[in-house]
Amino acid sequence: MDLKAAEKFRGFFFLASLFCAFFVIPATVHADEENSKCFVCHGKVDFANPLKTGKVISLYINFKEFSETVHGKKLCTDCHTDVKQIPHRNVIGKVNCANQCHFLGNPSGAPETMKYIEYKNSIHGKALFAGNHAAPQCQDCHGKHNIFKPSDTRSFDARENIPKTCGKCHLQEYVDFNTSIHGTQFKAGNKDVPVCTSCHGEHNIFKPDDARSTVSAEHITKTCSACHDKVQIMEKYGIPTEQVATYDESFHGIAVEFGVKKAANCSSCHGYHDIRASEDPGSSININNIPKTCGKCHPGANVNFAKGKVHINPKSKESGIVYYISKAFMVLTVSTMLVLIIHIMLDLRKRMQKRKGNRE
Amino acid sequence: MNEKNDNGIADNGNELRDKVRKQVIEELREKYGNGFKEEEVEKIASDILEGYASIKEKALLDYIKNQPAKEIAKMERAKADAASHEMLAEKEGEDFFVRFGINFRAQHMLLFSSCIILILTGMPEKFYYTGIASFLIKLVGGMGTVTFIHRIGAVGLIAMFAYHVLIYTPFTRQGRKDFLELLPGPKDILDVIQMIKYFFGYATEKPKFGRFSYIEKFDYWAVYWGCLVMIGSGFLMWVEVESINMFGKTIVDICKEAHSDEGLLCTLAILIWHFYNVHFNPKVFPMSWVWWNGKISKEDMIEEHPLEYEMIMKDKKHHGKH
User: Which of A107, A154, A283, B100 has its CA 20 to 30 A from that of A182?
Assistant: First the structure.
C-alpha cells in the first residue's frame, strides 16, 4: 500500500519537475527577451488601431511600467494565447483571466483565493454571466497591463484610486461621495474615512436589498459601526461613539435586529453616499431637514421632530428629563420591591412559626 | 288540601270554612241541642266568611294606603339588593360567601389575559439582548409580529380599564360600593402597624380587615396607576407623529422610558407580590380560586375579612325582620 502510494507520488514529482523545467523556469528567465519582440511594435507610443467606426484604440504598452506589474515577469503570450504569429493575422481576443490562470487549483502560480468564487456570486459576476456586457470583468477594476499590488499607488485598486475606479461606471455615486463628509475628507488625504470598498466589499458586492450585502438593512449597522463605535478613530473628530449603542437600544435598532426591514437604520436618516455633517445645510440630519427625513417613514412629521436629541442614552445626565425619569423609576422600583419582598418574608416567617407552634 | 299558590302562602279557604263550620255547629249544639239543619249551618258559615273576606280586603288596603311611598321603595330596593347582592350568603347557614360577582371576575380575567400578552411581548423587547428574548421574538416571527400582538394586548387592557373606570365604578351599585371601600384611609396605616407588630410577636392578633385589606388596596391602586402610566405612554407612542407634532420629540422619549420602566415594575409586582398572595402563599398554594368562582369560605371570610363578615351578618338580621 505504502509502496504503491510512493510510486504514485514519484510519478507526480517527475511530471511536476518536467513542467517546471520546460515552462516555468524558461518563462521567468527569458520573459524580457521574449517580450521584447512584442515591444518592437507595442512599445511605440503612437501604435494604435483605427477602427472602421472612427474610434482609435491605442495599442501602446509602457514596457517599463509593465515589467514592474505583478505580471511583469510573464510572457505576453501567457495571457494572449491567441497570438500565434507576428504580425498577427487573426483578431486578438479579450484575455479571460478566470479561465486561464485565476481559478482555484491553477497550475500557473496565480493566487489561490476564494475571491474568484466570490466574484462569480456577486451582483457583478451574476450580471456578467447573465449576458450584461456592461458588467465589470476583472480588467475593468484591476487594469490590463498595469496591474499592481493594491499597496502600490499606481494600482487601480489602491485605496487612493478606488472611488475613481468604481466611479467609471457608478458616476452618480462618485459625485455624491465626493461631496459627502467622507469624500471631502478622502480628498484631503484622510486615511480613516471609508472608500467604496470599505462599505460595499470588493469581490462579494451584492445589491443593498440582498440580505448578504454588507449594506443591507440587516448588516448596515455593523458596517457603519466598524468605524463609528471605535473610540480611537472617532475621538480625533469629536464624533461620539455612543450613537451606535443608543441606536441598538432604540426601537428602530431592536426592530431592525429582529427582522423589521422597514425600520430606520443608519442610512435611513444619515444617507449613504452623500453623508454630511449635521451642520451642513445639505445634510439629511441638518435641523432644517429633519422633518423631511423623519417624514419619509412618519408622514406628517413637523418641526417638533427636530427639537431635542435623537440618540438618547437614558443613563447619561445629558439626556435631561429622560435621565431623571429613568432614575426616579429605578428608585421607585427598587424601594417598592424591597418593601414588598420584606413583607412576604415576614409573612412566611410568621406562618412557619405558627405552624411549628400548632404542631407542638 | 293545603295547596300553595304562587306567592308561597297556603290557600286555606277550605280549612277556614271547615273551622268556621265546626265552630258554628258547636255553638248551635250548645244552645239548641241537635235540632238544626245542615243547610242552616252552611248559610251561617257562608255569611261569616263573606264578612271576613270584605273586612280583610279593607284592612289590607288601609295598610298599603297608610304606608309612606318612600318606605315602600326603600323596602323594594333592599329586597332587590339582597337578591342581586352576591356578597350576602345566599341562605342562612351557607358555608360560602360570594366575594366577587361575575362582572368583576370577568374584568379581572380580561385584565390578566391582556397583561400576560403585554408582558410576554413587552419584556423581550426591553431585554432584547438576552437569549430567551431573542428566542421568543424569533419564535413568533420577528419584531413586527411582536408589536402587533402587543397592541392586541393593549386594546384588551384599554377596554378593561375604560369599562372599569367609566362604567363599572360610577354606574353599578357594586362598583360604587367597592370603590369607596377601596379608598385608603387612616385605618390602613393602623393595620400596617398592627401587622408589623403581629409579624414580630408584639401582637397576638392580625389586624381586622374589612372588605379589602391594605394588601388588596395596594394591588388595586397599583393596577390603577400602572394602567394610567402604561396606557397613557403607550398610546402616545402608538400615535407617535401626532404626539411629537403636538408636544415635541421629548414626549416620546419620556413615554418610552416610562413605559419600559413602569412595565418592569408592574411585571415584578405581579410576579412577586401578587403571585405570592394568590398563588405561592402556603395557605392558598397552588392557587386561590376566588378569581374563577368568586367564592370565599366562611372560615376564610371570618379570618381575612372579619369586619365585612360582621357587617353582612348584621345586614342579614336587619333584612330578616322585614
Answer: A154
Between positions 232 and 251 of A, the ones with CB within 8 A of B are 251
From the list B255, B248, B245, the residue with the least C-alpha distance to A301 is: B245
Query: How do residues A324-338 score in pLDDT, each as one tens digit?
Result: 999 999 999 999 999
Apex A98 CA angle, A92 and A102, nearest 5 = 120
Closest CA–CA distance from residue A356 to any residue of chain B (Å)? 14
CB contact under 8 A, A254 and B272: no
B144–A260 CB contact, under 8 Å: yes
The answer to whether residues B217 and B188 touch, using CB atoms and an 8 Å cutoff, is yes
Which residues lie closer than 8 Å to A45 by C-beta, 6 or more apart? A60
Widest distance between CA atoms in chain A = 119
The label of the residue with cell 411549628 reads A356
Do the Cβ atoms of A326 and B266 come closer than 8 Å? no
Domain boundaries, given as residue ranges, for chain B:
13-85, 96-321
- Pairing between strand A56-58 and B96-98? unpaired
Residue whose C-alpha cell is 461631496: A179
* Residue A60: all three cell numbers together: 501602446
Q: Is B303 touching A (CB cutoff 8 A)?
A: no
Whole-complex ipTM? 0.74
Closest alpha carbon to B121 in B12, B223, B235, B267: B267
Closest CA to B100 of B113, B112, B85: B85
Q: Rounded to whole angstroms, how far apart are CA atoms A196 and B121?
A: 40
Packing angle of the helix pair B13-32, B38-66 (nearest 10 deg): 130
**CA A252 remoteness from chain centre:** 24
Q: What pLDDT score was predicted for residue B125? A: 92
pLDDT of residue B5: 47
| Average pLDDT, integer, range A298-315 | 88
How far, in Å, CA of A156 to CA of A142, rounded? 6
Ordered DSSP codes for B2-51: --B-TTS-B--HHHHHHHHHHHHHHHHHHHHTT---HHHHHHHHHHHHHH
Backbone dihedral angles phi then psi of residue B209, each to the nearest 5 degrees: -90, 155
CB B136 within 8 A of CB B129: no
DSSP string, A283-324: STTSTTTHHHHHHTTSTT--GGGGSS-SS--TTSGGGTHHHH
Query: Distance (Å, rounded) from C-alpha A208 to C-alpha A214?
Result: 8
Query: pLDDT tens-digit profile of B261-274?
Result: 999 999 999 999 99
Task: Using CB atoms, pick whichever of A259, A321, A348 lies closest to residue B250.
Answer: A321
Grid cell at residue B75: 323596602
Q: Are B169 and B185 in contact (CB under 8 A)?
A: no
- Short-list B144, B85, B157, CA closest to B117: B157
Residues with Cβ < 8 Å from A262, sequence gap 6 or more?
A297
Q: For residues B194 and B306, is the Cβ–Cβ distance under 8 A?
A: no
Give the pLDDT of residue B92.
Answer: 46
Q: Which residue among A254, A325, A347 places its CB closest to the CB of B254? A: A325
In contact, A167 and A174? CB cutoff 8 Å? yes
Partners of residue A50 on adjacent β-strands: A56
Using the 8-state DSSP alphabet, how is residue B97 labeled? E
Q: Which residues from B are below 8 Å from A299, CB to CB? A: 241
B138-147: list long-range contacts, CB under 8 Å, 24+ apart.
B138/A258, B141/A259, B142/A258, B142/A259, B142/A260, B143/A254, B143/A255, B143/A257, B143/A258, B143/A259, B143/A260, B143/A263, B144/A255, B144/A259, B144/A260, B146/A258, B146/B121, B147/A255, B147/B121
With CB atoms and an 8 Å threshold, state whether B128 touches A258: yes
Say if strands A48-50 and B96-98 run parallel, antiparallel, or are unpaired.
unpaired
For residues A303 and A291, the answer to whether their CB atoms sit within 8 Å is: yes
Chain A contact present for B313, CB below 8 A: no
